[in-house]
Amino acid sequence: MKQPQGFQDSEHPNYVCKLVKSLYGLKQAPRAWNSKFTTYLPTLGFVVLDSDTSLFVKTQGADVVILLLYVDDIIITGSSSFLVQQVIDALGEVFEMKDMGQLTFFLGLQITYQANGDLFISQSKYIQDLLKKAGLESCKPCSTPCKPHTQLLKDEGTPLPAPTMFRSLVGALQYLTFTRPDIAYAVNYACQFMATPTDVDFSLVKRILRYLQGTAACGLTYSASSQLHLTAFSDADWASDINTRRSTTGYVVFLGLNPISWQSKKQGGYLEVPEAKYKALANAAADMAWVRLILKDL
To answer: What distances in angstroms separate CA 289 from CA 103, 178, 249, 284, one per listed residue?
Structure first.
């Protein structure tokens, strides 16, 4: 152990800090664990991908093992079950780990394996917990996440006395867009009122939650396909935001018939119609280039 930066004692340079809290509870613990884990993986033959530093790949002959790391949650898959088990056993000798078996739940994502081999990914439990947190578990569902052409002025409505709940719900909804591209635009619009939310802004969030109440079981189905070409669709409106007169970009990227990346985002600057369309196309192309790099590394 060494004295932390900024707290060195020149008179007693060999003194160390007495630990009065469990290491796992410290804010630095996930980073320290992640650093140790990622340092050990190369000894097993893994290489970190330049395109995504949380992805590690090990190749042995014609076989490949892929490891995805998120803090201390891990997904391991590969073309050889023997190699996968070999990696799990090797990691278990150094780290205290628990093999949860086939992937069914990961960071709030629920994975269901269908009879025809398709994967269905949803966040229904996450939605129920979110509705309970907002006190809307028995609310009446609505058919859309937002009204058509919804536009609000920044100072419209009465400022919330305690905006913490609004910000917490909007942050949680952002994570929900991982499996629900249908709410991406509505959530992105609600995010624009995080600084000083009002009761009118809160009604936008409540409508999204009411929509989720009726569509909690919805998700994404991923099917195996020999078609591995990348396709993207992009579009942009023009100066639709009544507060800033900026455009909004939307795009979705498909691998074969499966959507794998999407975004709804307000553009920066004031652009003409062709520029707004070009900006949307450029954002989609940049995302496709990143996806292509990941596939190439894998």
So the answer is: 28, 20, 18, 9
H or E stretch covering 27: none
Contact (Cβ atoms closer than 8 angstroms) between residue 136 and residue 210: yes
CA distance 267 to 41: 40
Model confidence, pTM? 0.79
Maximum Cα–Cα distance for the chain, whole Å? Answer: 70
CA-nearest of 294, 234, 283, 228 to 255 is: 228
Q: Which residue type sits at 297?
A: D
- C-alpha angle with apex 109: 107 to 112, nearest 5 degrees? 140
Q: Within 13 Å, how many C-alpha atoms sit on residue 143's CB side? A: 1
CB atoms within 10 A of CB 232: 17
What is the average pLDDT across 104-118?
89
Tell me the residue type at 111.
I
d(CA 79, CA 102): 15
Smallest CA-to-CA distance from 262 within 284, 290, 246 is with 284
CA neighbor of 182 nearest in space, from 117, 224, 139, 127: 127
Output DSSP code: residue 159.
Answer: B
Contact criterion met (CB below 8 Å) for 130 and 188: no
Mean pLDDT estimate for the chain: 86
Percent of the chain whose pLDDT exceeds 70: 95
